[in-house]
Amino acid sequence: MDRPTYLDHNATTSLAPGALEVMTRYLTTEFGNPSSAHFYGDAARQAIATARAHVAALLGASPAEIVFTGCGSESNALALSGVTAGRTGQVITQATEHPAVMQNCQALTGQGICVTVLPVDSYGLVDPADLKAALTPDTLLVSVMHANNETGTIQPIAELATLAHDAGALFHTDAAQTLGKLPFTVDELDVDLLTVAGHKFGGPKGVGALYIRNGVTVRPVIHGGGQEHGMRSGTENVAGIAGLGAAAEHVTQTIGERQARFTALRDELHRLLVADLGDRVRLNGHPQRRLPNTLNVSITGTVGTDLLAALPQLAASTGSACHDGSISSPVLAAMGLDADRVAGAIRLSLGRSTSEADIRLAANMLATAVRTATNSS
To answer: Which of 71, 105, 114, 322 is catalytic?
Structure first.
């Protein structure tokens, strides 16, 4: 059997060119502990420094502002818990946030933190007026993701961050889905903290980073040997960090080309589906303010899980790979979409390896499966 067509790049990606080679080096010949004061430790320390510089360059940040972590979820936890530790006050987030933020916010409520969850509109956008109304002198932190992992909707981060700063609060964004797909810098977004997940843009799984603007106080969550400027103790995952750095370097060099290519392929996939299935295809998320690689659609009269189950040769999803499955998509439900539309949603996310042939094949498979399901019902 041929390998299925992979359109689930928002769940994870393959390694970027050069990442495996550099990782192999630090798993084999250069295997030293970066805390060791000898030749092998020097090589490992240099690998981390190089990777830190590449991640910082991708974000327009200083290398000293980058803290390596074990994943995007840990970065979110460090941002939320690290800012609020030992304090009382308010944290503000929004209804379509990733579970790694929502669950951490829920945990904070047991530690004397008041959490406010902002609503979103039918496109999944936060209204800046809602944030302005929710801010108080007690607001410590606002956390709003840069782009949604299911719909691709891009939030007005710079505008929201300005409102937070005007109220004396810090601003954090989870940028796991935008790195490698959109060009931006931390100064353009005006954020104080930003989450990076390596495997979402060509790095390995099990490594992430948190950008912490110089001067922002964050208490560590993991204590021990004082690695990562004392912010994240534990012997560093040198090979993983080196792979993340290689992916960041590759993305920095190719982001413009990637964005244009993803957009063209995404729009062609949408056009082909509409050409075959007509107005049964309903776009979920903002029609313009969304990730260039992400197409979330509901097909009237279908159930997304059943449709994909009938297509083993198409690797896609009905929502986030990080949700527990109890609701087909809490994100779409929070956007106010009706139950049938939520149940009928599928997410098709493109990546570096996606070709025009993949798009045509996926559209044909989906249309054929829909017609077959319709005729048999």
So the answer is: 322
Give me Rg for the CA atoms of the chain: 21
- Give the type of residue at 304: G
End-to-end CA distance of the chain: 29
Under 8 Å between Cβ of 243 and 13:
no
**What pLDDT digit, counting tens, does each position of 7-37 carry?**
999 999 999 999 999 999 999 999 999 999 9
> Is residue 212 within 8 Å of residue 193, measured between CB atoms?
yes
Spatial contact of 96 and 335, defined as CB atoms under 8 Å apart = yes
Taking the whole predicted model, whether its pTM rises above 0.85 is answered as yes
Q: What is the pLDDT of residues 262-301, one digit of tens each?
A: 999 999 999 999 999 999 999 999 999 999 999 999 999 9
The closest of 207, 211, 220, 164 to 184, measured between CA atoms, is: 211
CA–CA gap between residue 349 and residue 361 (Å, rounded): 14
What the chain holds in terms of domains, given with CATH numbers, is 5-12+255-376 (3.90.1150.10), 19-251 (3.40.640.10)
Residue that the structure tokens 């889905």 belong to: 177
Q: Rounded to an integer, what distance in angstroms lies between the CA atom of residue 271 and that of residue 195?
A: 33
Mention every residue, 6+ apart, whose C-beta is less than 8 A from residue 144.
93, 94, 97, 118, 126, 155, 157, 160, 171, 173
CA–CA separation, 242 and 50 (whole Å): 8
- Closest to 100 measured CA to CA, from 136, 156, 151, 149: 149
CB 101 within 8 Å of CB 76: yes
* The residue type at 182: L
CB 49 within 8 A of CB 237: no
- Whether 322 is catalytic: yes
Q: What's the pLDDT tens digit per position in 41-55? A: 999 999 999 999 999
- Three-state DSSP state, 16: coil
In a 3-state reduction of DSSP, which class is residue 274?
helix
